[in-house]
């Protein structure tokens, strides 16, 4: 039984049949998307679908039924078929970049690893600002004339070079300029610190003078208190003597 929902086909969860070296067995074809199972799952009615396809189908279908037999389908009773996934993973496929010239055939399970190293993979230029799309094998040739190309100096001075500045770059001159700039910066910092120290020294001298004046004021106040106490003692003594004389005469 063939069943293909046009909307589902445009958002296929399965693998394109044309990708395989040999025509896949009919039992490996999803009846919803007509592609080879990707993450196959089995419903309670024993029909098998791509996981993405059946979940999308149930989301769109009001009655939550199997697209093949129309029996009710419970999402909690859908099981992933791991052994079938391994069988499908061993099927031979053509590289997706065959149209660009890649001659390799490989197991479906190796598709991702191969795409990360395939010389015919279309990739963006890695240099910031460049919008070129090119084959991985052409990347080195493109880098030789890309106006956005840049990389640190291979001598280790740390300068980032472009094609325009690479020919004029001189590590010794660059390092000397950086050294002189750092010296100027250090001198400026030292001068600022010296000015700050002078301000602090001036502030400390003012504080010492103020403390000295306060100490002198305290000493004067202590002396005045002593004089007042002596005067008070003498006055008290004179008053006591006068009282004694008056008592004796009486």
Give descriptors for this structure.
250 residues; mainly alpha; Herpes Virus-1; 3-stranded antiparallel beta sheet; 7 helices; disordered N terminus
Task: Describe the overall structure.
With 250 residues, the chain is mostly helical. Among the domains are: 6-93, 2-Layer Sandwich (Herpes Virus-1), CATH 3.30.40.10; 150-222. Helices cover 46% and strands 10% of the residues. It is built from 7 helices and 9 strands; from the N terminus they run αββαβαββαββαββαα. It has helices spanning 6-10, 51-60, 82-89, 111-115, 139-143, 163-166, 171-249, and strands at 40-42, 48-50, 79-80, 92-94, 105-107, 122-124, 133-135, 151-152, 160-161. The strands form 4 sheets. It has a 3-stranded antiparallel β-sheet. It has a two-stranded antiparallel ribbon with strand order 4-5. The protein has a two-stranded antiparallel ribbon with strand order 6-7. A hairpin with a 7-residue loop joins strand 8 and strand 9 (160-161). The N and C termini lie far apart (151 Å). The model is unreliable at 1-11 (pLDDT under 50).
Q: Any idea what the radius of gyration is?
A: 47 Å
Relative strand content? 5-15%
- What order do the SSEs take from the amino end to the carboxyl end, as H and E? HEEHEHEEHEEHEEHH
CA(first)-CA(last) distance: 151 Å
The average pLDDT is 84
Assigned CATH class of the domain at 6-93: Alpha Beta
Strand order of the largest sheet: 2-1-3
Tell me how many strands there are. 9
At the fold tier of CATH, the topology name of the domain at 6-93 is Herpes Virus-1
As residue ranges, the low-confidence spans are 1-11
Secondary-structure arrangement, i.e. CATH architecture of the domain at 6-93: 2-Layer Sandwich
Question: What would CATH call the homologous superfamily of the domain at 6-93?
Answer: Zinc/RING finger domain, C3HC4 (zinc finger)
Helix content: 40-55%
Number of helices: 7
Give the overall silhouette: elongated
Which structural class do the helices and strands define?
mainly alpha
Tell me the major beta sheet.
Answer: 3 strands, antiparallel
InterPro entries: Znf_C3HC4_RING-type, Znf_RING, Znf_RING/FYVE/PHD, Znf_RING_CS, Znf_TRAF
Biased composition (Low complexity): 234-250
Domain TRAF-type: 114-157
Organism: Hucho hucho (huchen)
């Amino acid at each position: 039984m063939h069943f293909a929902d046009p909307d589902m086909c445009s958002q296929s969860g399965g693998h394109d049949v044309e990708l395989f070296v040999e025509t896949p067995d009919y039992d490996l074809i999803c009846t919803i998307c007509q592609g080879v199972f990707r993450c196959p799952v089995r419903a309670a009615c024993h029909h098998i679908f791509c996981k993405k396809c059946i979940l999308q189908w149930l989301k769109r279908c009001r009655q939550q039924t199997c697209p093949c037999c129309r029996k009710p389908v419970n999402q909690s009773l859908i099981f992933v078929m791991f052994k079938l996934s391994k069988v499908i993973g061993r099927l031979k496929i053509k590289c997706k970049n065959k149209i660009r010239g890649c001659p390799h055939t490989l197991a479906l399970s190796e598709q991702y690893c191969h795409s990360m190293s395939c010389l015919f993979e279309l990739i963006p230029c890695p240099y910031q600002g460049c919008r070129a799309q090119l084959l991985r094998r052409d990347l080195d040739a493109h880098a030789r004339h890309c106006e956005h190309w840049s990389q640190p100096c291979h001598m280790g001075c740390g300068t980032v070079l472009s094609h325009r500045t690479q020919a004029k770059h001189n590590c010794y001159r660059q390092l000397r300029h950086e050294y002189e700039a750092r010296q100027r910066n250090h001198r400026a910092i030292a001068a600022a610190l010296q000015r700050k120290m002078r301000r602090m020294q001036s502030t400390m001298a003012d504080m010492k003078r103020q403390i000295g004046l306060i100490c002198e004021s305290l000493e004067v106040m202590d002396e005045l208190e002593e004089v007042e106490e002596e005067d008070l003692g003498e006055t008290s003594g004179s008053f006591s003597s006068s009282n004694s004389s008056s008592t004796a005469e009486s």
